[in-house]
Amino acid sequence: MSATYPLFSEHKEETIAAWGEVQLLGYIREWLGDATPPAPHGMGDDTAVLPDDAGNVITTDSLVFGRHFTTALPPELAGEKLLKRNLSDIAAMGAKPTVAVLAGFFPANLRQDWLQRFTEGLGRCAVEWGTRIVGGDLAQINAGWSANLTLLGHAARPVLRTGAGIGDWIFVTGQLGGSIVSWHARFTPRLKEGQWLAQQPEIVSMIDLTDGIAKDLPALMTPDQQALVNRSDLPLRLEAKEQEAGGSGKHAWQHALTDGEDYELLFTWRGDATELRERWPFTGTDLTCIGRIEERPSPDAPLLLDPMDELPLLKASGYEHFR
Amino acid sequence: MSATYPLFSEHKEETIAAWGEVQLLGYIREWLGDATPPAPHGMGDDTAVLPDDAGNVITTDSLVFGRHFTTALPPELAGEKLLKRNLSDIAAMGAKPTVAVLAGFFPANLRQDWLQRFTEGLGRCAVEWGTRIVGGDLAQINAGWSANLTLLGHAARPVLRTGAGIGDWIFVTGQLGGSIVSWHARFTPRLKEGQWLAQQPEIVSMIDLTDGIAKDLPALMTPDQQALVNRSDLPLRLEAKEQEAGGSGKHAWQHALTDGEDYELLFTWRGDATELRERWPFTGTDLTCIGRIEERPSPDAPLLLDPMDELPLLKASGYEHFR
Questions:
Q1: pLDDT tens-digit profile of A85-135?
Q2: Do B134 and A41 lie within an 8 Å CB cutoff?
Q3: Is A61 in the B-facing interface, judged by CB distances under 8 Å?
Q4: CB within 10 Å: which end of chain A, N or C, has fewer?
């Protein structure tokens, strides 16, 4: 009898379900070994910076039916969302998008009209944001629907996640929380804002908010840093307040800290916070200073702390979902 | 009641199953509209040439469990195959691979040990061929297993599919047919051969054989051209002969023409065919002249013809699978 190599198991302890996302990504980097260089030229930032050091960057992001959208979403918006997820990563580097390739995983029973509207939405969004779809691949799957897009970009000076220092002000664009109601598929990628920020000498580190501040802010920090965040300063999306009022069991500020898919820019600023607010040229995009990076008093001190009442907003162990 | 937008249909005439692959790709390009430029800067070649005209190229290819491999394949070889499918596209441009990004679509019940061996195989293969995995994305799906890899490369002079002319000799590397038995996952991407060919002034057009000569050779030709191919000259893989002997119902030469996944280079050569054979430096890789491009006598003349007995090897309408 020939050997077989089963992919799946009913025993959770043998499967990737036993791991959190961060742990799984850590193992994958370990298994890739020498094949993956350290960030910013490898995994670990919003995009990777290509080794030619000409400021070219690359990112890849996927869209899965049932996970990132449902049949309630018009297909054009699913097409836009696939591209905009990637555009948001490019924005967080302060880069401009250039070209993309598309990979589809479609079953034979996919509706022609749905695919047409999806593809037209993707195409219009690409033209709107000045990028082109230059290649692709179609693979047939038995059931479900997934697609992936890989996007290249160019930045005169890519802004990395790393580098936040003691005394940096923490800023966020737009509003936070309750994205699931509508914003997750209707957001505006902050490309113009990211490109403008990359030109300011005071910008230090930047990320786009996909998992919420509670997970994404620590990605900017080192273990000896603590973020002091006034929860009353968090810019709340109307839907975050509505969810609190509707009995979600969370305060609106908790939605703002932990809800995913805000696709806003979170960055640290080494300079005069008031001056940034005066210089900010985007009248249609909110800009809020939510706190400051300070020294962490001890290794078990909370990563995020509200200085008004000393309430830990995030425990020392950090925050992880998707388990 | 809110509107819903169903993705799937039980009525075949409403689904993409009603279309062939070529038709589906044609619609997708049409729907993308201005978002996709013509080849070589857009879809339609083995890779797309980036618009900076610095010789950078990009390609994307996927691997689906149950379609491109089964549980009979050691996971390391699945990892290698995902990368090598892309390397073969890069080879067909005469390019060198540079960096790649990986997208995984994994269910929660994916075995840790399978994923480890897959990833280690991919990593070792990347190091072997001088490329690096610089970024990635993981998406959770309910069932099945898919992955995509997007690979960048660089070519001093990218060799396109288009350009074959009357009188060009048709050459193929390696052997053809019966790939499904083993070769499909154990092939050597013809990178060195492709890069060497790109440096020869006589090379005109090139493609990597993924769907078989019957589909891939017409991709090099214009409608006013006919390929004269001696079927007795086709280099047959041992497994193609074994399949004929085992009662596959096809001649070995038919396997060589229509089996997929040969991953050999097919190219046209405007010069002395004997001289190419003398110059060819790869003693471990077969090189075979299988025929010549001629004028097509009429629009309904066969695209591929055996000149010895005038047997049409491919009808005027061409060949299409995946319907």
A1: 999 999 999 999 999 999 999 999 999 999 999 999 999 999 999 999 999
A2: yes
A3: yes
A4: N
Check whether residue B220 and residue B94 sit in a common domain: no
Q: Give the separation between CA B191 and CA A37, rounded to whole angstroms.
A: 23
| Surface of B (236-275) touching A: CB under 8 A | none
Interface probe, candidates B150, B151, B160, chain A, greatest A C-beta count within 10 A: B150
- The domain boundary, picked from B154, B182, B199, lies at B154
Residues of B in contact with A115 (CB under 8 A): 16, 28, 31
Q: Which two tokens stand for residue A124?
A: 């219009």
In a domain, B161, yes or no: no
| A283 reaches B (C-beta below 8 A) | no
Query: Would you state the structure tokens that stand for residue B72, as one six-digit string?
Result: 């009979």
**Structure ipTM:** 0.93
- Domain termination residue (choose one: A154, A178, A193): A154
Average pLDDT score, chain B: 94
pLDDT band at A317 (very low <50, low <70, confident <90, very high): low
The reply to whether B307 touches chain A by the CB within 8 Å rule is no
CA distance B29 to chain A (A): 9
A288, A175: one domain = yes
- Beta strands B132-140 and B96-106 are parallel
Number of domains chain B is built from: 2
The full DSSP string for B180-237 is GGTHHHHPPP-HHHHHHHHTSTTEEEEEE-SS-HHHHTGGGS-TTEEEEE-GGGS-B-
Provide the domain limits for residue B150. Answer: 12-154
Using the Cβ of B55 and the Cβ atoms of chain A, whether some distance falls under 8 Å is answered with no
Q: B206 lies in a domain?
A: yes
Query: Strand A48-49 relative to strand A56-64: parallel, antiparallel, unpaired?
Result: antiparallel
Of A7, A25, A131, the CB nearest to B65: A7
Identify the CATH number of the domain in which residue B51 sits. Answer: 3.30.1330.10
Evaluate if residue B238 carries a pLDDT over 70: yes
Residue B7 in domain: no
Average pLDDT over residues B154-169: 95
Determine the 3-state secondary structure of A101 from DSSP.
Answer: strand
Give me the pLDDT at residue B245, please. 95
